[in-house]
Structures are given as C-alpha cells and as structure tokens.
Amino acid sequence: MSNKVKSSKRKRSRRSTFPTLYLAILTVLTYVPIAVVVVYSFNESKISSVWSGLSLRWYKELFRDPDMFRALLMSVLLGVSSCLIAAVIATLAAIGLPRAKLPGRKLVEYLSSLPIIIPEIVLGMVFLVYFSLLNLPFGMTTLIIAHTSFCIPYIYMQVKARLIGLDESYYEAARDLGASSIRAFFDITLPLIMPAVISGMFLSFAMSFDDVIISVFVTGVSTDTLPIKVYTQLKTSTTPKINALCTLMLVVTVFCYVMSYVFSRIGRRNMKTQKEREHKEAIRKA
Predict the structure, then answer these.
(1) Pairwise CA distance, residues 208 & 215, whole Å
(2) How does pLDDT run across 196-228, given as a tens digit for each residue?
(3) Distance (Å, rounded) from C-alpha 180 to C-alpha 177?
(4) Residue 286 has what DSSP assignment?
(5) Are 243 and 230 contacting, i.e. CB atoms less than 8 angstroms apart?
(6) H or E stretch including 17?
(7) Confidence band (pLDDT; 50, 70, 90) for 86?
(8) For the chain, domain boundaries
C-alpha cells in the first residue's frame, strides 16, 4: 500500500514539475532578451555590448533629438487617428451586422477578422499595390488607412463580445418610450458598450504604435514613424540610445495592454452587476 502511495506522489510531483519547467523556459526565451535591452539602455558606454556603469545619458540624448521627437508625434497622431476611425467603423459594424438581414452576413463577419490572420508583409504588399493603382500619394493618409484596416478587428471583437451579453430590453424600452433609434443608441447602447470600445482602442493603439512592417510599405518620404526610425537606425549602428527608445516603446505598449485589460474587466463587471440586478428584480416580481 505504501509503495502505491509513493508511486502516486512521484507521478504528481512529475506533473507539477513540468508546468514549472515550461514556464521557466518560456520566461528565459521571451523576457530575458527584453530585460537585457532595458538594462543596457542605462549603459554609460557607447557600445551596447560593453557595460561601463549606470547612466541616464542616452535618455537625455534621446529627448534632445528633434528627429526622434518628430517621429514620436507622428506615431501618436497615427495611432490616435487610426483608433478613432476604427472605433466608429467597428462599433457600427458590431451593432449593425447582427441586425442586418443580408445573405452573406456571416461571411462578412468572418472576413472582418482577416487582417489579424493575414501576415503583415502580405498586407503591406496589398496596400502598396492598391494605393499605387489609386495614384494615392504615400504619406500620412495611406498610413492612417492601412492602420485603420488592421485596428478594426481588435475593436470589433471586443464590442461584439460585449453585445452578446447585453440585454436588449433596455434598448427596446427606450424605443417604446418614444426615443428614436439614434437617441436610444447614444443614451442606452453606447454607454453600456463603452468599456469594450475603449479596451479595443487601447489594444489597437498598441498594435499601431509598434507596427513597422506595414508602415514601411505605405509610408512617405517625410512621414517616418517611431518604429521605422528605429529600424532605419539599426541598419547603420546600434547604440544604447536605441535601447532607451525601445524601452520607452515597451513601456507605452505595456501601459496600453494593461489599460485594455482594465477596461475589459470593467465591462465584464458591469455585465455581471446587470445580470445580478435582473435576477433580483425577477425574484422580487415573483
């Protein structure tokens, strides 16, 4: 009997050891290189591979560089513009497609997620050919159009998931009380789905802010975004200044993902509160 107990304990220890080992390997392969970049952004030496002491020298030089500051403003403007346009299109699509009586509605909903699945280099080539056929000058306009296209699915999926658990009785009650469809949307539906919209916007901003592959294909001569600036400078030389810039970009990206998670949790909590309120109301009426 004791041998069986010892054997089961050994099996359980093996099962518990494997997830720990997997997590350790994943952490080493994924986060150690990122940690190295962050640490060497505080390096005093001009050579990235040689450590000579802690310093904020490269951050100071980074903030004094007018080209980097211009590229930062370009990336922020591009990300905000793309997210706002994508939020309008994705929200209207998530609300309108389920109510539309179209024969290919399911196909349209499926195609809306394709920009996430298609490789970025393929999307970049497609946009390059498409804008060339339209004789559209490459610059901020083409960047906004391209970034909006792959930002839409992130917001669309968030809003669609929020609408699945949304009680339509609130919207119907507003309509019964005489509110127009537009008034009911802005007063009832939009406030309820707003956490999902904001969550999707933060997520899509992070994707737009970090994108380099699609941007390389559709950018103009005078519209260098921050990732493109990093990419072009890496061709000539690698200094801790690039590490400092990558660290700041990492901070912005992590912040966007955290805020997306926070607003997603707010949406789920509001949905749970709504269901509990409806359950209590049903019990009270019974």
Answers:
(1) 9
(2) 899 899 989 988 988 888 988 998 888 888 888
(3) 9
(4) -
(5) no
(6) helix 2-40
(7) very high
(8) 65-285
The pTM (predicted TM-score) of the whole model is 0.79
Which residues face 54 on adjacent strands? 43
How many other CB atoms are found less than 10 A from the CB of residue 264? 20
> Partners of 43 in the beta sheet?
54
Q: And the tokens for 87? A: 């939020």
Q: Is 230 exposed, middle or buried (0-12, 13-18, 19+ CB in 10 A)?
A: middle
Quote the CA–CA distance of 144 and 49 in Å, as a whole number: 37
CATH domain 65-285 topology: MetI-like fold (1.10.3720)
235 exposed, middle or buried (CB, 10 Å; 0-12, 13-18, 19+)? exposed
**How many Cα atoms sit within 13 Å of 230 on the Cβ side?**
21
Specify whether the CB–CB gap between 228 and 43 falls below 8 A: no
Tokens at residue 30, please? 């994924």
Note the pLDDT tens digit of each residue in 161-190: 888 777 677 667 777 777 777 777 777 788
Beta carbons of 170 and 219 less than 8 angstroms apart:
no
**Distance (Å) of CA 27 to CA 23, 115, 137, 191, 215:** 6, 29, 44, 39, 30
DSSP per position, 63-129: HH-HHHHHHHHHHHHHHHHHHHHHHHHHHHHHHHTTT---TTHHHHHHHTTHHHHS-HHHHHHHHHH
How far is the C-alpha of 216 from the C-alpha of 147, rounded, in Å?
12
Residue type, 231: Y
DSSP conformation class of 188: I
